[in-house]
Structure formats: C-alpha cells, structure tokens
Design goal:
Elements: E1 10-13, H1 17-29, E2 36-39, H2 44-53, E3 56-58, H3 61-67, E4 70-73, H4 77-84, E5 94-97, H5 104-110, E6 116-121, E7 131-137, H6 143-154, E8 157-161, H7 168-176, H8 178-195, H9 200-220, H10 226-233, H11 239-249, H12 252-272
Parallel strand pairs: 1-2, 1-4, 2-3, 4-5, 5-6, 7-8
Antiparallel strand pairs: 6-7
Helix pairs in contact: 7-12, 8-9
C-alpha cells in the first residue's frame, strides 16, 4: 500500500542546522512531528529539537532507516561514509543527500546500492523558510521519489530540478553560496552610507529593507523582467543612473561572472577530492 506524503515518516541522519531547518519547515507545514525521526551521535541537539518540535529522536542511525519512508542524509560530507556504513536501507523509499559536493556515485557506494538517491543543495535562507534548493535525481529515482523531495524542500522555500549532475556545482554557485554575495554587497552599501555621515543602524535598516523589497517585487511579479524593473527605477540622468554607470564602469558583470566561475571550479575540485 502506498503511503501518502502527509502520512509518511521522514527521517534525518544528522541533526545539523539544515536538518533542524527542514524539520521546522515540515512541522510548520503541518506534518505530524511524530512522523519525523532524527538521529545524531550526540544527544544535545536532538533533545533541543525534540523539546521544540515534538519529533522522535535516536542516537542509532539504523532506527531512522527502520522507521522512515524518506531519509535525509544530513551529516557533513567527510563523515558520510562512516555514518552510513553497514546501514540497511531496504525498507526506505528514497534517500536525499544535503551534503555539499558528494556526487551521486559516492552516495550509491556508501548506501551499498540499496536505495534510490536524490542529491540536493539547499541554502541557508531555508532556516527562515525562504530557501532555494537545487535537486538532482539518480537513475533509480522514480516520480514518487521526486514528489517526496519536492514535499520536503517545498516546506522551506522553493526548489528546482537539474537534469545534469554537473550543474549541481552551478546550483551551489547561484544558490548555495550566493547569499554570501548578497550579504557582502549589503555590507559595502551600509559602509558607504556610514562614510556619507549616516549612522550604521539607519543605514542597515534602509539597505536591508530595500534588498527585501527588491527581491519581493521580482518574486511576486515573475511576468516582469528584472531588466524592466531596473529601467523603471532608473530615471535618465538621475541618481540611480549615475550609480549604475559607476557599477558598470567598475565591471560588476565581470565580477559576478568571475565569482560564479570560481565557485563552480572549487565545487568541482571538492567533488573530485
């Protein structure tokens, strides 16, 4: 008998920040916390999450595999092999990795080819349930497994599938790493405002709210091109035009492309190491 996603048990091997964020999102979405089970080597994080969310906890990874229909592999990449060693996944529908850089081939090896594997790359805004997650399905993944992944990551934001595993490095560059790019640009704008004589708290409030507003406008009106929004804000010969001219002269497009290229290159190096 097929179990509905709402009635399925979702397990986590590893209780790190991303596992906690996803569990919170699922509970907020209405998933029964007693149908969430999480394991970890130490009990401190587990007990805190149990008290907060009412989920089931264990220090035995096999308990998760025995209980869950879907298992999220949420330990650090360098710990994955040891965490999965000897586990029996035969009763698990699919396993979803949230470990950056670990290719599907390695995950299949670590799980002894017992279970369908999905690779994911969520980002830190998932903590606030506004994350962006890239997903890649191995050859053994079926439609019901994809729907399970969408159910999980839809609880913490939006998701997109890629059909080439090599693009997961680009997902990392555009989603996994990009919050740091935006944070850095916000830092520089705030510092520039302070240098103009504004106090830091006021500069921060104006910059942060403007960034949120700009992103909200783009998200809520997907039919309007980002370039069109930029043009709407940019009066000819005005202040915005002067600022944008300065950014273009500084090579903003070249810098962005170089940053993405650097992240992709480093991702490929880490995957091969």
């Amino acid at each position: 008998m097929t179990v509905s996603l709402e009635q399925s048990t979702i397990g986590f091997i590893g209780a790190g920040n991303m596992a906690g964020a996803i569990a919170r999102g699922l509970v907020k979405k209405g998933h029964d916390p007693q149908r969430i089970i999480m394991s970890n080597r130490s009990s401190g994080k587990l007990e805190a999450l149990q008290q907060e969310l009412g989920i089931r906890i264990t220090t035995n990874n096999q308990d998760v595999c025995r209980s869950a229909n879907v298992v999220l592999l949420s330990v650090k990449p360098q710990m994955m092999k040891d965490a999965l060693a000897g586990l029996d996944f035969t009763s698990v529908d699919c396993a979803i990795s949230v470990a950056a850089g670990l290719p599907v081939a390695k995950l299949i090896e670590f799980t002894a080819e017992q279970v369908a594997i999905i690779r994911s790359m969520p980002n830190t805004p998932s903590i606030e349930l506004c994350g962006a997650t890239g997903l890649y399905a191995s050859q053994s993944v079926r439609e019901q497994h994809q729907r399970a992944a969408e159910y999980v990551f839809g609880a913490v934001g939006e998701f997109a599938w890629v059909d080439d595993e090599g693009l997961m490095d680009t997902v990392t560059a555009l989603a996994g790493s990009s919050p740091a790019y935006f944070f850095r640009f916000m830092e520089t704008l705030i510092d520039a405002g302070v240098k103009q004589g504004m106090d830091q708290d006021t500069a921060r409030k104006l910059v942060v709210q403007s960034a949120l507003g700009a992103a909200t406008l783009i998200k809520n009106h997907p039919d309007i091109a980002i370039s069109e929004r930029r043009i709407q804000v940019t009066s000819p010969n005005g202040t915005t035009a002067a600022a944008l001219d300065s950014l273009e002269e500084s090579g903003i497009a070249t810098m962005a492309e170089a940053a993405v290229n650097a992240a992709v290159k480093r991702g490929k190096e880490l995957s091969q190491s």
